[in-house]
Amino acid sequence: MKARWDIFCSVVDNFGDIGVTWRLARQLAAEHACAVRLWVDDLRAFERMCPEVDVQLTQQWQEGVDVRHWPRNWTTTEPADVVIAAFACQLPHDYMEGMAQRERVPLWMNLDYLSAEEWVVGCHGLPSVKFKGVQKYFFFPGFGPGTGGLLRETGLVDRRQAFQRDPQAQQQFLQSLGVFPMAGTRLISLFAYENTGLASWLEVLAAQLQATHLLVPEGRILGDLQAWLEVEALAVGDVHRRGALTVQVLPFMRQEQYDRLLWCCDFNAVRGEDSFVRAQWAGRPLLWHIYRQDEDIHLDKLDAFLALYTEGLSPAAKAALIALWQAWNADGDMAESWTRLLEHWPQVTQHAEKWCLERGLQADLATALVQFYESWI
């Protein structure tokens, strides 16, 4: 019989948590024949990336996944064979009691946040707390051996490369979004948290000789964009031009569309975790707006990734890339670091593809989870 999996997702940051768990649930069902229940406490957030979801239903099937609303008042449910608490969310007490009462206790894992910090390798796969004899394990995604890998569907990199070799496919996709860039224009996608440093970046883009078309899916950065454009409001479909810069607001899109948007662009500014990983699979230079945490502990995670990601770059290119990322994550002035990065554009572009292909050599996250379960039983 197929193993039954329960994935619990408490939506904290609008889309990052549900973005990761939704991709994982679909891949486990489609590629590993797992029976998956995805428990989500905020179906409204889920609806943005899966419009077919009926937010009024407590149970429904979407793309082979049994989607359940995670209610505040929990009702008795038989626990699955594998239980994933995504990002350290607290399982319902009655559900935990049910795990302990099973004849064969389930494998219980905390799927943690993505990090390149060195301590992750030492903690990945280790036992954590127990609840009445049910052992929980740490499971860490990561960028290299000794971690759980990254979410990546089978054949993803091949599909991406084929799409990027097909100018007509890219044009058709962009036109489906109402995007008609001029020939020779640099395409940049922007998905970020609020950032007062945006204005300095936009100023330098507007002043450059090469034209830039900035594609901005709906999100929290629109307020800063609106202030720079000096307009009363921004809506989907709006197009504004200033100097060499064209700014266009796109609708919030489902994950498969967003992937293709990243594949079309020459540079991708992304936020959180799900879009961060997808930008790496795009094989293009990127800029990560990391989720801000108390006491700036997120900067340790940022620095750890930069140390790993910039290996193999020339000292000048490495310094330029690090300066850009640090300025962006400190709401700093982006003009000088962006200009410096452009001096090394061919190198950082080649490096992005090389990084992607190297990450693709390790097992993907869904496969690693299945292998962990098979070893455990």
From TrEMBL:
It catalyses: dTDP-beta-L-rhamnose + L-arginyl-[protein] = N(omega)-(alpha-L-rhamnosyl)-L-arginyl-[protein] + dTDP + H(+). Keywords: Glycosyltransferase, Transferase. One of its GO terms (molecular function) is protein-arginine rhamnosyltransferase activity. It comes from the Bacteria. The keyword Transcription regulation does not apply. The keyword Glycosyltransferase applies. NCBIfam families: efp_Arg_rhamno (TIGR03837). Belongs to the glycosyltransferase 104 family. Protein-arginine rhamnosyltransferase that catalyzes the transfer of a single rhamnose to elongation factor P (EF-P) on 'Lys-32', a modification required for EF-P-dependent rescue of polyproline stalled ribosomes. This is Protein-arginine rhamnosyltransferase.
